[in-house]
Amino acid sequence: MTKRNKSSLSRMLDYAGGYRRLTVLGCALSGAAAVLGLAPYVCVWLVARDTLAVFPNVAAAAGLEKWGWMAVAFAVANIAVYFAALMCTHVAAFRTARNIRRAGMAHVLRLPLGFFTGNQSGRLRKLIDDNAGLTEDLLAHKLPDLTAAVVTPVAAVVMLFLFDWRMGLLCLLTMVLALGCMAAMMGGKNAGFFHRYQQEIERMSGEAVEYVRGIPVVKMFQQTVYSFKAFYSAIKDYSDLASQYAMSCRAGQTGFLTCINGAFALLVPAALLLASGGDVGQVTVNFIFYILFAPACGAMINRIMYMSEAVMEADEAMGRLDELLSEQPLAEPRVQRRPESAAVAFEHVSFTYPGAARPALDGVSFTVRPGSVVALVGPSGGGKTTAASLIPRFWDVDEGRVTVGGVDVREMDGAALMEQVAFVFQDTRLFKKSLLENIRAARPEATREQVLAAARAAQCGDILDKLPEGLDTVVGARGVYLSGGEAQRIALARAILKDAPIVVLDEATAFADPENEHQIQRAFETLVRGKTVLMIAHRLSTVQNADQILVLSEGKIAQRGTHRELLAAGGLYADMWEDYQRSARWKVGKEAGV
């Protein structure tokens, strides 16, 4: 049976491993506890029978104490067995949820890095962590209760017809009507609610993370939550969906509650009619039993409703996890090759992002020779970052090939390829760990002295001197935060420590002030010495000395050459240079004579 043909519960239990038997045992114990929980009602009927048989001389009733203690014994046994059932299912549920999280994370780690550019971290956390939590709740609580909810009606129906089939039939009628109301409430247009609900939760979770990250901007510019339209829209859509669902359930919920609590209204007139034409004492005894047992049946139906809701939630959770697990990692080569040099070449490369209308790169060819610097410039959206991301296989090309040392990157082991390339992105991410651990992430076996040397080479000396614990200072703890330019220098230290033969710089000075930019440029000199360098920049002053400049526009190479050659040729690069020079000369204030 394929995964798609399996039920959600079967797929969950696949993750349970050896704890699957513990789940089955817990469910069996829960079913036994449910039967034990009905036994005290029989004892109550026996007490009522023996009492009314000798009424008003109650003291002459035999067996009352015995029935009372039996009721207590059954109640205690019910609690003990149910406790054992929950212990079993909880242990199994925790292990199953852990295995689901592990499987989700293991799969995510195998996905191409490009996958993460299109998926918010909040959404991924929701997909893996929260959905695993939903399955945990189902297996730990709802599944044993569901077993009890299945066993209880069978035993309850037997008991309903055990003493008076007519009163039993009335109780059963209210149960059937309540189930009908519940089915109507959860079917029809509400059937797809949980799918839409999970989508809105994921969207709101992702937008919340992005909003929290943007709080400094909100405070700086005195904005309100309404300026973050995506987050506000997500909250509004979620609120509207929840409200619409609640309002659509009004009639069904009202009918459901009326039915499960309406047995008393039917039993009283039925008892009066039966007593008028039969044994009043026997009818009274039976009435006492049914009037006590009917609320228990109502509670059972209530439990079934919550069970069905939990099953739908878990079914949706497993469906969302399956969507994530269906994302395919990049194919690993059967025969892995090692590069002969650090040369990088693009050979007629075309690439289109999933769902995009036009290609991000279209027939791009160029070579970065070992020890040389090639710069990619051009308008935003021209394909610069896309080209850089194809070298470490963030994505795989649609046509053509990208090679490192003459070897197609698709024929290289993923870890071996990553060893060849060091990155410095404009959006620097630092872990909430010490600077030592942040820099050492590039080479975990590096010594403290090597890390310190890399930090000095990246011009981080002033950063270390001002921090309370120097290299051991934890970023983000006790108010220790770095500016964009300082964080960029730490990222450069990380790249210097890695000492990879190929370096990719993507807008590495984008968020640096003039002082930080000067220090970053000095760090570049150490980082790129003798390396194969692909540099992406908007500040054209940083690429003047590049061995070759490629001007990318609309996914194609519009121009190529050195800085002087491109200026002499005119065209797009010359226009960009003129715009850059004009912006560099621009000053705040009024122009002379204005």
Please summarize what this structure is.
The protein is built from 21 helices and ten strands. It has helices spanning 8-14, 20-54, 64-110, 114-117, 121-163, 165-186, 193-213, 215-220, 229-248, 250-260, 263-276, 280-325, 384-390, 414-420, 435-440, 448-457, 461-466, 484-498, 514-528, 563-569, 572-585; strands spanning 344-351, 361-368, 373-377, 399-404, 407-408, 421-424, 502-506, 532-536, 548-553, 556-561.
Instruction: Estimate the mean pLDDT confidence.
Output: 77
- Taking all Cα atoms into account, the compactness measure Rg is 35 Å
Q: Which bin fits the share of residues in helices?
A: 55-70%
Query: Strand tally, please?
Result: 10
The outline comes out as elongated
Uncertain regions: pLDDT < 50 for 5+ in a row? 588-594
